[in-house]
């Protein structure tokens, strides 16, 4: 989905734009948490 807007992703997956936004925000937070945990180990 690289380079796609939230609207395009929502249309492709037959979801509401807000659902796509929420899912991507959750993923970003989880990734940030994991990366911060990894950095503290180095």
UniProtKB/TrEMBL annotation:
Gene Ontology process terms (BP): regulation of DNA-templated transcription
Alphabetical list of InterPro entries matching this protein: Sig_transdc_resp-reg_C-effctor, Tscrpt_reg_LuxR_C, WH-like_DNA-bd_sf
Every HTH luxR-type domain range: 3-30
Residue ranges of coiled coil: none
One function term, GO molecular function aspect: DNA binding
Protein name: HTH luxR-type domain-containing protein
UniProt source species: marine sediment metagenome
Lineage: unclassified sequences, metagenomes, ecological metagenomes
């Amino acid at each position: 989905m690289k380079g796609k807007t939230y609207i395009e992703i929502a249309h492709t997956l037959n979801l509401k734009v807000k659902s796509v936004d929420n899912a991507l925000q959750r993923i970003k937070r989880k990734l940030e948490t994991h990366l911060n945990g990894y950095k503290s180990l180095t």
